[in-house]
Amino acid sequence: MKGRDPFRVIREALARTLVFYYPFAGRLREGPAGKLSVDCTGEGVLFIEADADVTLEQFGEDLQPPFPCFEQLLFDVPGSGGIIGSPLLLIQVTRLKCGGFVFALRLNHTMCDATGLVQFMTAVTEMAHGACAPSIPPVWQRELLNARNPPRITCIHNEFEFSTEEAAAKVNTSSFVIALPHEEMAHRSFFFGTAEISAVRKMVPLHQQGCSAFDLLAACLWRCRTIALRLNSSNEVHLVVNVSSRSKLNPSLPTGYYGNVFAFTTVRSTAGELCGNPLGYTVGLVKRAKANVSEEYLRSLADLMVIRGRPGFPVARSYVVSDVRYAGFGEVDFGWGKPGYGGVAGAIPSEASFFMQMRNNVRGEEGIVVPVCLPTSAMERFSKELESLLNLKDTSNVQQYKSTIKSSL
Description:
By secondary structure, this protein is α/β, with parallel strands linked by helices.
């Protein structure tokens, strides 16, 4: 693709891809009982062309969140951020003066999960390389995950249950998260290489040392975060785990299905129990919660949505973690080679972190990078708690960016 304009190449490829993925060019509508559907209006997606007077090298040797000038790399078009009646995709291609470019995308998550998004992006790359059609034909068929008739809730879904304290308060539950509603937020990414993961693994009993790195780090970060927020010991805290569920279904979904196929499962504990027990206690909670996600759990969840009309999702003292290491963002190649970084742009302030695979060029090793966003004072405590836990001497793998966004929590 040398000598070609990435904006024009990707725009043309995107237009051709949307012929096959035409629902993305429509708009979301809300029907009776909150039922969502896509109106295939053909109104299209938002696509932005930009130029930046910087080079890729100026973003740092290790490309990871938070990214400087992120608001300029993905411009928030006024009036485009709604769920209902708004564009389902916003894409920006920013050319850099070194010849590279930044591809940034905002998605209405009701349309697809990380696996589905990578399938769509891969189709765009194939079109950019001259293909006439995607190698994997897209499959809509959302009815495959419809509720049963009659619907029946057969599993416990704590992720949609408010605690007694929250229900009694009858206020915006987000006020429970942090008692500093106007404090400046701090964004940092934490890299976990072989040494860090090994250090965490040594903190759990022998029978748990074979568990996944995700389970270990999710438990570790949840514990450090709870300590950093200085909650009362009696406060209930939640870890909400996003579990990819495609492998749970029998028969499996057809190849090419790009809808959401994941479930949230929730771990609950009091702050006192979480911080007062060994790390193995928390790891056990995480493993048991993930084990609950089965095909019956997914069917029960779909039925719950019908019976309870898309219930609200409690955010009070909740921390959401999602593992997107194997989604394939780092493999997306529009014709200029694989990206220096492919993944989520950062953490959701005070609410969610994403686990991503990354190569740390400074240390010369592969590992897991996890972006975290907390109020500044809590972030300082979080970083110190994690450093103390891991007994790290070198904190060069931690990057910080203080935004001017005020917390609304």
